[in-house]
């Protein structure tokens, strides 16, 4: 397949309906929604020196077939992907696709064969040189994906970096069926925490971003992330405003006890997935209660209510995720040779 490729400096230069139609047709996640990318332009979640989008259209009818967002970053590595797996470029300017807050970095490309991916890679390489990147990197690409196959054929070095975890809801009809599908211990824990919350008068609500107390959520999330030296992942000023820009793509789960926010979760919703994108919780706010379990349970209910197949729960915390029926999907970074 031949593509007519262009490099654009803003996603607003592409009609939102056309862009989101490509994302849906390619089965790409909410991280590629027009609203998400537009929000990143207005409020980058980490330092970005430059950005551009490699956009491909069918040369015959002009149909949008490819959309690859890229971000020039330097010394930004909150998940320690570069430092731990590609240390030679940890401090170099790198043209990255996607930002680190995206744990599924397989960009929307329709019908991408060997020729098309070769063209995409060549365009990204030229762009990298233009913006002064020492290398380019497609990060968090699922190993079993069209993008991984295309980048491999294009000769880009593959480095396994992490795993993300997913829950397949296809076999279950409702929340009780989900509970029946997991181990007795995990099932008992979820039910016990629900009873404790009910007895303590904990209130749970799922809200649109503009209705939620995102400032309080960020304080909880930063406190949890600080345990791992990663509080900067949740910028106090930018993160709440960013989430509000997402509109219908996002929902915010709040758990309150005596009026105080004790836990929250931000979910992103697309045609096939509900993503547990972030969580924050207060330790020991209610005796014997681990509120993050209730956030997870609500996310499963949200997915079932939206009739989507997959609950995506991101990277790390493997023990919890396996215990609740999630399975891993290996992620890789495809890293170019030095360009200078």
Automatic annotation (TrEMBL):
Pfam family, one: Acetyltransf_6
Residues covered by the BioF2-like acetyltransferase domain: 186-322
InterPro entries: Acyl_CoA_acyltransferase (IPR016181), BioF2-like_GNAT_dom (IPR038740)
Protein name per its UniProtKB record: BioF2-like acetyltransferase domain-containing protein
Species for this entry: Conexibacter woesei (strain DSM 14684 / CCUG 47730 / CIP 108061 / JCM 11494 / NBRC 100937 / ID131577)
Lineage, opening ranks: Bacteria, Bacillati, Actinomycetota, Thermoleophilia, Solirubrobacterales
């Amino acid at each position: 397949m031949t593509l007519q490729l262009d490099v654009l400096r803003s996603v607003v230069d592409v009609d939102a309906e056309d862009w989101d139609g490509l994302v849906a047709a390619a089965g790409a996640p909410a991280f590629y929604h027009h609203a998400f990318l537009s929000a990143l332009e207005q409020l980058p979640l980490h330092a970005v020196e430059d950005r551009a989008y490699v956009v491909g259209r069918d040369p015959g009818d002009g149909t949008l077939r490819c959309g690859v967002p890229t971000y020039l970053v330097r010394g930004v590595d909150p998940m320690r992907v570069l430092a731990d797996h590609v240390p030679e470029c940890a401090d170099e300017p790198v043209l990255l696709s996607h930002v680190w807050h995206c744990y599924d970095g397989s960009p929307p490309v329709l019908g991408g064969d060997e020729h098309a991916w070769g063209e995409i890679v060549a365009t990204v390489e030229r762009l990298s040189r233009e913006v002064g990147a020492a290398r380019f990197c497609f990060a968090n690409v699922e190993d079993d994906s069209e993008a991984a196959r295309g980048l491999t054929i294009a000769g880009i070095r593959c480095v396994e970096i992490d795993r993300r975890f997913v829950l397949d809801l296809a076999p279950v009809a409702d929340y009780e069926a989900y509970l029946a599908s997991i181990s007795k211990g995990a099932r008992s824990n979820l039910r016990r925490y629900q009873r404790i919350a009910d007895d303590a008068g904990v209130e749970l609500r799922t809200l649109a971003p503009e209705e939620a107390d995102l400032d309080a959520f960020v304080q909880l999330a930063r406190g949890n992330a600080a345990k791992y030296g990663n509080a900067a992942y949740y910028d106090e000023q930018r993160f709440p405003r960013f989430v509000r820009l997402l509109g219908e793509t996002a929902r915010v789960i709040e758990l309150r006890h005596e009026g105080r926010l004790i836990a929250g979760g931000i979910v992103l919703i697309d045609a096939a997935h509900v993503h547990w994108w972030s969580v924050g919780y207060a330790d020991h706010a209610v005796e014997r209660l681990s509120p993050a379990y209730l956030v997870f349970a609500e996310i499963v209910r949200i997915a079932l209510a939206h009739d989507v197949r997959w609950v995506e729960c991101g990277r790390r915390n493997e023990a919890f995720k396996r215990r609740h029926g999630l399975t891993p999907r290996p992620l890789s970074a495809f890293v170019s040779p030095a360009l200078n």
